[in-house]
């Protein structure tokens, strides 16, 4: 228990700035009161999550959604709030120029525009002290014959190589993949194999990001985790849950057992907690539920899955596996999964000087009423803002 507590105490789950703004589906975005109007207010809300959980000490930015005149000033403000700026996420999917793609576009001028944006993001990383640049491309095609699949891969490789060459000594490129959407015939980075192939060709500073919502139904995500860990190419996670497609629901809400299985593979290799080299981040939007409590609950869900994974009796598991004891090996995992770890986490929080129930503590803090009162007027942040 003490070893598990030590790892849990060092865990960091990065929150995304965009989770605190108005967001929803392509059909409707339901606006809420008190949502942030600028990156500073997003960071202030993210700091509340860290204040009550003690394990959300960094905030991811999305450029240009979180663009400001002075990023050094923004980083200083984050530090004042008790958090730091983490991953810088690029955006090459919203401009009209990107209708046929960005880094894979057939027009060299459009590819240049997208590449320059990625290089701009590296400059922002330097200004805020970030080590990770996350790349997700909406590029793809809708119809057979629309463009050359092979040529698009060549264009992608060329852009990635240029951006990779500009990374600083401590900086990484994290390449994300997605099965489909917004393109429906083919996506240029649709799966972990494609992402891995490009990262392997680039070098040690390029690694794969797993978004848990970006897979076909029934995909064994923990297998992907194990393979990428073995290859030294797992750079990070975008945690969320899905029922049908890329739903961006709260992590652990659809299949908490899947989240446990993922964390188990990571715990087996000591890849949780400080020094793991893996960026654990939420990537969610909250359309009908209050933003800050939903993010707090999501952080707690990852903590609970991690705690259960850390309680797996590895000696008993290996013995059962070596003996071919199928049911015994499965029982070892199920025993850990069925353990109620909430008392353990409540005890850990109290030892850290935190309230044992972060959701209740936030509700009692009065912060929600405060921001509803103070954030009157202006343009609420949301998709594209």
Identify the notable features of this structure and list them briefly.
14 helices; eight-stranded parallel beta sheet; 385 residues; two-stranded antiparallel ribbon; single chain
What do these coordinates show?
The chain has 14 helices and 10 strands. With 385 residues, the chain is α/β, with parallel strands linked by helices. The longest helix has 21 residues, at 108-128.
Indicate the low-confidence ranges by residue numbers.
none
Succession of helices and strands = HEHEHEHEEHEEHEHEHEHHHHHH
Strand % is 5-15%
- Radius of gyration (CA) equals 21 Å
Shape: globular
What is the first-to-last residue Cα distance? 44 Å
**Helix proportion:** 40-55%
- Count the DSSP helices: 14
List the topology elements.
Blueprint: H1 2-9, E1 15-16, H2 39-53, E2 58-62, H3 71-80, E3 84-89, H4 108-128, E4 132-135, E5 140-141, H5 149-165, E6 172-176, E7 186-187, H6 192-202, E8 206-211, H7 221-231, E9 234-239, H8 256-268, E10 279-282, H9 291-310, H10 314-322, H11 326-337, H12 342-351, H13 358-365, H14 367-374
Parallel strand pairs: 1-2, 2-3, 3-4, 4-6, 6-8, 8-9, 9-10
Antiparallel strand pairs: 5-7
């Amino acid at each position: 228990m003490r070893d598990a507590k030590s790892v849990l105490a060092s865990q960091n789950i990065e929150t995304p700035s965009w989770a605190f703004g108005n967001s929803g589906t392509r059909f409707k975005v339901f606006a809420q009161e008190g949502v942030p109007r600028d990156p500073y207010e997003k960071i202030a809300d993210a700091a509340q999550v860290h204040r009550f959980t003690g394990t959300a000490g960094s905030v991811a930015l999305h450029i240009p959604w979180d663009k400001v005149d002075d990023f050094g000033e923004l980083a200083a403000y984050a530090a004042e709030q008790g958090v730091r700026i983490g991953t810088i996420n690029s955006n090459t999917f919203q401009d009209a120029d990107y209708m046929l793609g960005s880094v894979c576009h057939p027009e060299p001028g459009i590819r240049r525009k997208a590449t320059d944006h990625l290089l701009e993001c590296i400059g922002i990383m330097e200004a805020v002290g970030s080590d990770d640049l996350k790349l997700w491309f909406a590029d793809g095609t809708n119809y057979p014959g629309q463009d050359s699949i092979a040529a698009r891969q060549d264009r992608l490789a060329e852009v990635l190589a240029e951006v990779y060459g500009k990374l600083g000594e401590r900086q990484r490129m994290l390449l994300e993949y997605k099965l489909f959407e917004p393109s429906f015939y083919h996506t240029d980075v649709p799966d972990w194999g494609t992402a891995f192939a490009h990262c392997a060709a680039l070098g040690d500073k390029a690694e794969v990001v797993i978004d848990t919502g970006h897979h076909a139904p029934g995909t064994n995500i923990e297998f992907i985790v194990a393979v990428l860990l073995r290859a030294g190419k797992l750079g990070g996670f975008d945690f969320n849950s899905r029922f049908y497609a890329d739903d961006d629901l709260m992590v652990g809400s659809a299949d908490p057992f899947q989240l446990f299985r993922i964390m188990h593979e990571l715990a087996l290799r000591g890849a949780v907690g400080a020094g793991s080299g893996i960026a654990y981040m939420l990537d969610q939007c909250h359309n009908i539920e209050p933003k800050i409590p939903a993010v707090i609950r999501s952080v707690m869900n990852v903590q609970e899955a991690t705690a259960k994974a850390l309680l797996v009796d590895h000696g008993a598991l290996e013995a059962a596996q070596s003996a071919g004891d199928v049911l015994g090996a499965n029982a070892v995992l199920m025993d850990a999964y069925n353990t109620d770890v909430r008392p353990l986490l409540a005890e850990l929080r109290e030892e850290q000087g935190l309230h044992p129930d972060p959701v209740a503590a936030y509700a009692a803090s009065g912060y929600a009423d405060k921001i509803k009162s103070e954030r009157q007027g202006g343009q609420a942040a949301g998709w594209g803002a």
